[in-house]
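Methods — Computational structure assignment.
A single polypeptide chain was analysed. Its primary sequence is given first, followed by the predicted tertiary structure written as structure tokens.
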Amino acid sequence: MKTKNKKIQKIVFEIFKKNKLSSKHAKIATDAIINAELVGAYGHGLSRLKMYCDRIKKKLINPRPNIKIKKISQSISHVDANNSIGFVAADIAIKIAIKNAKKTGIGMVAVKNSGHYGLSGYYAEQAVKKNLITMIYTSAPPAVAPFGALKSLFGTNPICFGTPTGSKIPFILDTSISMINRGKIRVAARNNLKIPKDVALDKFGKPTTDAKKALEGVQLPIAGFRGSGLAWMVDILSGVLTGGNHAGKVKDPFDDFSGPQNIGHLFITFKTNLFVNNFNKRIKDNIRTIKRLPKIKGIKEIMYPGQNKYKRLKMNSKKDINITEIIKKDLEILKN
């Protein structure tokens, strides 16, 4: 089933309002979810809507949070999100980081007591549109075993970097440290689809293409011990440093209703002209040089991170959003 973008946007907005979010917060959350659908990140889109609402109903997400912002310096702020929905905490944080960077050259904002906020790249784009470079980190529920361990502890802990390119298409690297992000596995599990080989192990430590078994087992990190090290780095930056949960204590939003997630996020933004005045020329030269390299067979263009995402957004914005039967049932339940 396909639904007009504006129609589904209105439905999601009204669902969040029904779950006691303010109009402002409902719009922030709705915009982030619809964006995920339009860029093709379905594991972070409508498939998570029911989860957010379930956690609000169980009082694990605070629909009317008393968010506190502590100003540490002209450049640095600390946000206590009061268990708000993650979209709202992240929206506040990236806007403060942008404002601080515009004033002083650099902005750093840590967030604690937050929840899942969707796509890191969504917030990175906001900074890049203001001609800022950004780095964003967030922790996640246990899914990946530290290298040499038998038990999952690190999340898929995405690493995000964004920079202006001197063109309308920003450079946005938004990648989990696992071979496949957990949202894709959850979508596959709900739709009884297989996942690729060599991305996960079942609970007995055997390779599996069964999405449900993968959720019960362990996801594999990118590049072996290097990916494990990157996950640990993000755990420190977004958990230990911010005051958020870390070392495997972030609760799974779908399966663990024993308490709030207390996810930590870290947003860093800075001006492109801190050290040189000709950044735009230099970044254009950088990209042009790499794109002109000889290509392997079958490759028409060497793409930089963010190009494919931009194309999907532009293309999908002109189309209706495809609603699966499972999502359709979710929406019917949530509307009534």
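Note: The chain has eleven helices and eleven strands.
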